[in-house]
């Protein structure tokens, strides 16, 4: 029995400890915002945070997450109002939308570590996330906008 | 009446785009029936516990599975009054508009309801939008493909909105005992100015639902639109960014099992035998068996393409357990040899031989070369091209080649099915429920009205999800297991079991006289297994002596629609050739095209020219102006231009390329589009930007190769997809402003990107590129 802390809640999961975190989230816990795209850490659709680091949950054994804080797109912000989520809606980034949770989770770690990323910073940090619809330009713009929102919100606190 | 005509248009356009036409009969007289639903709030919630047909049940079933906000369910209104098939209004004034067509990112779930709302005259911000059930009688053809959604629903949806508004007005007039002509509406409120009375639509909805649908309604002048032509945000945006269950892969039901398919590892192979003893012992595994797709002689419709007829299936409790068990499965494969398929459809029943060869890319290329030298079918001939070529002072001849492409939808193929002896429920991502249903009905032996298909949001489509095989597979597995199941393809399954973009080639020849005038044009195209040539498109109609020919090589590699079928190759080849031709003639590439278009307008050659020369010239002039054609912003930019017409729309791009770390990089793009009225401008811009990125990626990196029938690319480490750092810094999109009815947009901006990239590559490197992908697919794949 695995014990996992996901989005500040504890879940007891009856699964093989080698099961990738992705499938524990999707099949056992019922959090399906984290997406399956490739299964081999190539597309970024499955990015979640493990103790604040972006990891690809499709190649992360669930046992590795024990005793750590897992955050998925569903738990990124209490009211789904993370600056990135606001910016994504403001710029209407999504087309099919399938990759966007992974994009946002990767970008969230970037923004935490780099308050004012340049285009180059964004290109480097986001090169592991594929968007087949080609919304990259809007993702880039939305990350810049989110950085501004984050700065304003920070100043307001 | 409305849909009858439209279906004919749809069928015609599919012929044009090379997709086998499917005719969906719609009973015109009941297209817009008004019915009042009988569910009160209690019945509504109670009904949600059941699975089955019907509008309300459908909504409830999805809500139960977390497919809709809990809040929405809690606020479930007392009574929905259905006013035309697309609109439901409650007594307490909740206005709901159903989207008829499946959503794969082209944003129809927003744009189609916008068209209803425009004529209904409601406050868009207060409208509840929901994906409709599959019901071709009530909701029309309901397919996503051929860039048809907006154009085929443009009139019917506005008419539905206008009819509903008219019925609400009549209901108000009856209630207030005033002449209906004295009433007006604004944003969902009905006013009677003389008496100062007003009331919201909900006040009259119940009465309106009983009023017969008016025949013939007056539509708004497009100049008075206040919803359409104004940017509205994606109605599912908030759900997407918060990870709500929306997609087929997210769909769940109590007791649902997971199934995966083991298909032959190469085209041309079939299952010989298998040993499941070790795999069956793996935890969570329920069963392992083979299924047969089609019985001998099964008449295949246009979207019934399937790569293999016998498939090995593993069923278990969870995805990971099934994936693990597959590794223990021992299967033996053998050559399938030549096989026979029975094709049905409009052309009539016919037998087709599928060759058994295990194909290899080098051999495919060699075969195409040989076929290109043989006589081909004449597709169009104007004047006397043979003599013109004989008398030419100079002949320019170039051959272009492009590979198979995989769609690579981010959400791999998957589908839910629960099949019992009496009925079937299927749910998941698909483009044409009306295409799949007759096939499912035949294979399951169930009447169509016992098959319910629910359309989830699709994680991409690009043509791939028009094909029903994965739905049939899911249904057969559920039937065998007597349980609800979800079939999931791994990425490797998805890449290696494809309905691919075909492999194409074309040789273009142009004859010039001693004064470098273009006197004849010849295109001879072919492919595996189809040729791409659109014989009646530009530059046909602009040149006195013209010849188009085509040939095909049969193959067992399954192919189908891929974003702008055939056009996606033609625009690459033809637009590169025109660039090279302009250079040989000493002309600017845009001016050269404009000269040809002027000729096509003033004195068109031949018949059946598909394009409007004025509109075609219009986008070239617009992109020339907006890009500052003669003067790129930076001196290091190498410019390429291309334009194309397809799906009744016109698109031109100017791309600015630089060489960065030895690799071509498109830094900036200017796009000019004429698709008539733009329904949702910001979303349309997004779609064009996406098509530009998609075109750059596929032209530079895309490609699928075979070795002895086996697909050599298995996943994104070997099939290169464009990534963030390879996407342009800026794509500026300009739409031609006119009041022409909307034409296609999902596909038209895609094909000319290929040509513009090829032409910019020439300017960057001094070398012409004739074979796609233009860079090695293996270079520069980022490691993570």
Automatic annotation (TrEMBL), chain A:
Gene3D superfamilies xref list: 3.10.20.30, [2Fe-2S]-binding domain
SUPFAM superfamilies, per database record: 2Fe-2S ferredoxin-like, CO dehydrogenase ISP C-domain like
One Pfam family it belongs to: Fer2
Domain 2Fe-2S ferredoxin-type: 1-76
CDD domains the record matches: fer2 (cd00207)
Molecular functions per Gene Ontology: 2 iron, 2 sulfur cluster binding; metal ion binding; oxidoreductase activity
UniProt keyword list: 2Fe-2S, Iron, Iron-sulfur, Metal-binding, Oxidoreductase
Keyword Iron (UniProt): yes
InterPro entries named in the record: 2Fe-2S-bd, 2Fe-2S-bd_dom_sf, 2Fe-2S_ferredoxin-like_sf, 2Fe-2S_ferredoxin-type, 2Fe2S_fd_BS, Beta-grasp_dom_sf, Diverse_Oxidoreductases
Descriptive protein name: (2Fe-2S)-binding protein
